[in-house]
Batch of 2 targets.
Target 1
Amino acid sequence: MSRADEREAARLLAAVLDGAEPADADLAATARVLRDAAAVARFDLSEADVEHALERARPVPGAPPSRRRLGVAGAVLAAAVVLAAAILLVLPFTSGPVDVDVQARALAALGGRGQVLGVSEVVRPGPGAGFPVSVRTGWVDPAGGRQRWTQTVGGTVVTETLVDHGRVTRYDPASGTAVIAASCAALASGCAESVDPIAFYRRALLAAGPLRTHAHTERGRRVYRVTLPVERLADSTRIVQVATLDAATFRPLRIEWRQLGADGRARTFATIAVRSVLPIDAADLSPGTLDLELPPGTPTTQLAAPGQPVHLVGMRRVTLAEARTLVPHPWWLGSRFRGSRASEITVLRYTDGTAVRIRYGRITVWTYSRVVPPPLLGARVPEKTIPLGGGVARFYGTRGGGLVGERTIPGGTVAVSTPENAAAFTALTVVRPL
Amino acid sequence: MEGDNHARFQRSQADFDALFRAHYAEIVRYLAVRLGSRDDAADVAAEVFVAAWRGVPRLRYRGRPVLAWLYRVAANMASDRLSERMRQPVPVEVVSGPPVADVADALADRDALTRALARLPADQQLAVHLRLVEGYSFAEVGRLMGKSAGACQMLVLRAGRQLREALEREGIRVSS
């Protein structure tokens, strides 16, 4: 086709897209595929979504636009520096009961360039959350984008976690299995348990505009209380942090995580008692401190990379005999559970992975490896994490209002979704390979 | 006249809230196709507006509206984000198991179309987005992209052909 013919074809297609009748079937098909593609790409944002995004993105008032090209990290850092300078220079001349350089001092207390933070913290559940108290100890390297910590419950190590530029490796020493996800958003239990509270607190301090600070005395100790603006985790969970700082060191003593629900109401999810935050020079850190070396042969499940929407692309009912041949091998609750027979064994194929679903009345057992089936995507904050059967069981609410309990198994994850809490716990204790 | 336009341009950029409310949604839609994720698109779109606001002093009015510059910043940031992803190791896993019949053809087609759209060259993606998703006329698309309307029509024609070829490679027949 000559260039002139191409131009003419392009003009005719443009006319068809503007509403003219197509001259031939080929042109009509091209117009059709373009319209279909546009329909796939078209979606609306609510006014509330836009206002929420605006609230988060709005530049610091009074900060002059820069003449230099700034990277995103540089822009955030520059905003923090401008903000800190504004606080230090302007606010001392205003009257008020509270010292106003708290934010800048709090950031400074978390170390400077080239430093990593050694942290130790106790994570306590909020009212009604119900998960046990756990202790996290580890390291945060803000410049290197790495976090590495060990989590214990009742003196037993339940999880070893490495976060490397958002990529999460979670090792469960009890079961000897590991999960690797390119983002915490790919984990069924979401990001809340894969983000170190100190790293999260530091990020919020850096990004925040001027903060309201209140001075208090707690048990004879002078403290400041700071409410940080809403921060979104990678899985979109919205968290407000209320930090209590030591007035002498400006280091955090306690951080309360409040999760914002869809209705805008906040509920306390966890309170993190910070036992120590120790900034040290990265050069002084022993090699390997910020690494997680899995034991040779550790069964490892890799979850789909983020940014790749998971869709159902196919499904097939299979017989019990066929189900026994599947890989990964499905788990089940036996032929009967709580009076309901196993029924509807279905293989669901999603983009990037498969899952097997077995129904027992209102209870459903899922076995999956790489992709978290969309119906299991939780409210993204686990409500309960407990040691179970040599491993760890996690419970979380689904977007549809149900409850899901999950545990890591060799080669994947088994999850039970149910409308009742008790059934989920019982099911996870008896679930076994088909 | 040129001076007035430049001043108006600067005022428009500086009015961050108005700019954000007017164009945030369409920048998110554009980035969602490029990045394959609405969440990533929302994050990057916010950065686009912050960069726009910060970049006011070094801008020179060239006869194109503010929106053109926003799209250019968005395209650059999307490229940066995609390059970043390419540098990260991609988890690879062989998902084995018996073949499963596709009973959800519509879903599969939609998924294939999404993938094909994401693989289009950046200029074709932008032309399709502006003309078909946002509904600008080809004359407006030309102004926003800094090209002639005819050149934009050509981009859309090539995009349409590439989309059809991509779908046909996946065994999806496209009819009128």
Target 2
Amino acid sequence: MSQTRLPADQYQVTVQRPEDFDAFWSDIRDQLSTIPLDPRMELDELRSTDEVEVYDIRYMSLDGVEIAGWYCRPREHFIASPYPALLLVPGYISEPTLPKSWAKLGYAAIGVAPRGKLRSNGQFNPGYPGLLTQNITDRNTYSYRGFYADAVRAVDFAQSRPEVDQKRIGVHGSSQGGALTVVVAALRSDVVTCGAAGAPYLTGFMDAAKLTHSNPYEEINDYLRMHPDHLDAVTETVSYFDCINFAPLIACPMLVYIGLEDDVCPPETGYALVESMKNCQVDLHAHEHCAHDAGAYWEMEQVEALLAWHLKPAGSGRADMTVG
Amino acid sequence: MRPANFDSYWDNVDAELEAFPARPVLEELPMRSNEHCTVYALRLTSIGPYRIFGYLSVPRGAGPFPALLQTPRYGSVNHIPDYNDRLRYVCLQIMHRGQRLADQPYSASYPGLLTDGIVDQDGYIYRGIVADCMRAAEYLLGRDDVDQERVAIQGDDLALITAARRTGFALVNASGLMFYRLAEARLETSSYPAEEINEFCRAFPDNQDDAEETLALFDPQYHVGGLQSPVLLAIGGDRDWFQPLLDQLGDNCQIYELTHRGGTDHDNIDRLIAERLETPPMSRFIRTLSH
């Protein structure tokens, strides 16, 4: 049987919020709090400019995994500190952002490389495809448990920097970066000032897998084809990692932008996510005929404006286009 | 300017590649296969010698089938070929040396790949990467289950260069050109990967001329003069910028001007490829749901 797909805003996702969702993540935050951050920075002179210093950074995260990233900040003579911090969180297959263009705008910008990304894959490397389904039947060892923690931990890195104004910390990304934006804003609602999430992935996992055959959600379809008896366990696990379940925890202003023909992250899940953001101010921009680009060609200006309004960087200009 | 040693440089690459047998090995991947297609891990030898990787997907049933070669993106990961493409085509997504699944013994850095060995034309990493793509083309075009009249190649500069140096493609779909006029383009941007060249030139000004001479060897405008395959070139900006390339391509090129609306652009390009390969067009966005 087949039926014409309904408009995306009329779809009802099947996501359930586990009763112990908050306790599960509280426990992970407690575990993180016992691990010394051990932040390290090494100046990368090749990538630095007269205006921006670029650092290769490292810090410790859950399970003793060392996480890498890029840290870019304006030189003092170009823009004087303190700076607002901006976390740039990466897409599924994209490389972590080296956020020089954001630093030029006046941000202390961190390009996060959660475990499994290049430079953070010495201890954990499920590969691509692979990340989405690694240990997907067990929430306590599922790949995204540590991956999310690594992104959250980048807030701690920002807070460790004396040149960062602790009252101005933003987060932005698209696709998986959109998901990480939601997760960081939710789990660090005490300090995150604002967020901009494009084409949020890891949202309505099981619904999304039914609505598309595109990668990466197709990994779930592949997995269940091989292991149909794991359906209940998979559904249970991903409910602990679903952005729809994180959304009510967000307290800061958010921008979400989606493509109404997104085959990678179905727009139905974007609407459901925004509907779940019940405790924050959120703007949803839905772009006709756009796919996983989520209208970024036009939306980047909106993203920059939202971040600038709330974070008040001292520079001017345009940032590089965010890709998911 | 077209480098004086352009032809000899690439003739040497061809000769080197010919000296190494591909020695293909296929390993079925049940996890990625389905009722419509069988997906394999493919390993081939390229120059170096270096063992590269590809995802090969073959539709179930009796061939020959139309085929699609996808050249690697600039980044460490390439996806398994798209589901819709796997329904219609023999698909080969190649991973060049340094990318995941082809990252032993060489693992590429991002940023970093674009300037790796750039002052030594024979040691420049992209010399090997182009060879990797040509090896993939030879392999795909040589398969018995591929309809030789209906093979397309899709990607960036690597697709154009590969098609220029390996005949037999019914269509070249190129977009997101990186090497095209890169020595000029990098002056207008601070975005990666072009920024890698800016960084290199700032750090090593004495080597700038050498680097730019190397880059010219990979500029598609110098490759496509003799290209026999029709080209579908997707561009999103200033058309005048592409005029030198268009002059070289001549009547052989159809321009698709991007709308920047990904759904529209994908469907339009998919339709143009499907028309050429005589397959049904397919949108990745599913409009009719099955239960």
